[in-house]
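Q: Joint fold for the lines below.
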Amino acid sequence: MEHFSLIATREYLNKIGNKSFILMTLLLPIFLSGITFLLSFLSSVNNDTSKTISVVDNTGYIYQKLDSSTDIIYDLIEDTSLDEAKEISRNKSDYGLLYINNFDSPEEIAESIMFISETSPSFTVLNKLESQLESILTNENFRILGIDINQINSSKIIINLFQESFDGEETTRVDGVVKLGFGFALGMLLYFFIFAYGSMIMMSVMEEKTSRIVEIIISSVKPFNLMTGKIIGVSLAGLTQVLIWCVMFSVFSYFFSTYFGISASSSSGEIILSTDEADAISSFALEMISAFMNLPLTNIFFAFIMYFIGGYFLFASIFAAIGAAIDNQADAQQFMLPITLIVIIGLYVGMLTVPEDPNGIIAQIFSYIPFTSPIVMMMRIPHGVPLYEQILSLTILFSSVLFFVWISAKIYRIGILMYGKKITYSEMIKWIKS
Amino acid sequence: MSNILSIDSVSKHYGNFTALNNVSMNIREGSIFGLLGPNGAGKTTLIRIINQITMPDSGKVLFDNTPLNVKHIKDIGYLPEERGLYQKMSIGDQALYLAQLKGLDNSTAKSELNSWFEKFEITDWWDKKITELSKGMAQKIQFIVTVLHKPKLLIFDEPFSGFDPINANLIKDEILKLRDNGATIIFSTHRMESVEELCEDIALINKSNKILDGKLDDIKRKFKSNTYEVGVNSSNPDLLNKKLESNYDISSPSFKTIGDNLKLNVRLKNNQNSEDLLKLISQDSEVIHFKEVIPSANEIFINSVEND
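A: Joint structure:
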């Protein structure tokens, strides 16, 4: 036990003090938030440049009803021919020219409207133009036909189904999206942790083997204690990293929101959101939050911890055995490949089957297989998985952990003293049997 | 004198390969014991069994008359032949770590390390990395780490490899001091001159079997062939040569001297003794050189392995 904590402590301090570990810990959040910052900055700059569109309106009523906004500003050119208007618009270096002919019926007008521009216009601009023109001309049609628009509007019925689960919990459309997104994020996170920290263990085992310090160490420590001490030490280093990331993430998001909060209020004079839009946004945000709160958060939290521990120990012990069996990193590939493959299969199965049916037979099977269960089950749990399924899956996972730690320890204690021999699978099986 | 270690009919197999076959030997407390054998004979396997790195398939190992167990780990210091240290950890930190693994507490380990570092005049190495040191320097650190916890039994596998003659001597003196302070030393090497110099007892392992063991002096006695090196300045060397030839087995000389005109190796027959030989050669000659041929450890090693 004494040895165990000594080994874990050394491993922990060694990892924490490692330059690339420190760089990774500090730079990843800076890099990620830098990218987010840059993207939102660029898109806000992009939105700032408003596009001027010149309009020649021969009908006399369409231009008045076109709504200028921050991104599109309409500019009327009066009493000109098409050619003159083109010339004027080009000289103003407009985004484009909207040319509207006059006819009696809105249908004919609609067919004859032209948009002329230097380069092909963007989709969003075209969509906005078209939808505005459509509603103006439709309203005109209603007027001609003597239909009262207010009556139409007031008789419109909007359906927003009230959703509830059989347990009586309120659900919304957003729920599904949040569940999927959150589940995927959790699954990917587990995948990332397992591989990042698992390969750290492999490197650490290999370092001791190739530097030949291992024979000195195992004359004082049982190989099993050395291996498990290492696994614990690295996992603690990993947890420290995650903790630092959590802290950095909250600090960054605080600064991020303050920065953008200030910029939003300073430009509030220019941004004129229609109250509808503002309502829509805030109600969407509210729905997201309520969808998030509706998730089985306690279950998710405990399941994440359990699957993290189980998955981590399962893969870490295998990685330790691989590190012990090989002499150099190039030989690692043949043993890494099957493991990587099976995990990626898990990832894909989760991504393809869970959105269709979180409780489908394939998704269920893969959430029992120990190598894929941490990922697939974590994707399923936000959608609600019966407790007995989770317990069964975890029981299988932890039994496999015991089994694989036992097998890996056998490979490990022979492998670390074996040099200059390329190890095959049949060789490993011999070690396990011995 | 009691045995600190007795190995009783130990066998070890790896699949179809027999690494040790029914090997027994005793190691006297306070002795320097040479564990000899060609490459691949099974020495390392035996050493690993003593260190409890591997377990024997059959047989017993007693340490201080109790079956070998985990408590004995702190009583043993082992310097493996293929040895290394962490590349990225400072010298002091890893020495401290290895000492703690052997059961020393932090402060004892520190003070012991400091005194060894002072003895070897390497106190400024504490914060260095192993990559900044030469091979010989790294070996010094490994030696210190091996002996730091004052084990009763020390196992050195090729301890002098990588050392220049001055440092090899320094280490040799330290090994002798450790022996004088009561430690028992198992010494595995191919350098027969160090065996000659240091070992009181030896065991020779060849092809997984122990083929020879005992006190080095006894083994030499057993292996000597009653042959004498004779170098004389004779008034009539031809006549003396004939006399010797008719009475003894003679062969060409295996030694170098100056000032003599007849050099021979003379082997006594069963009923003859050295006194008569000396009388014969001293009759009308000046005896320059007269010495019994004692087989060297090297010759014993080669003979035994080749005839096995």
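Q: Anything notable?
A: DSSP finds ten helices and 14 strands in chain B. Chain B touches chain A at residues 14-15, 48, 51-53, 70, 73-74, 76, 78-80, 82-89, 94, 97-98, 100-103, 142, 145-146 (CB under 8 Å).
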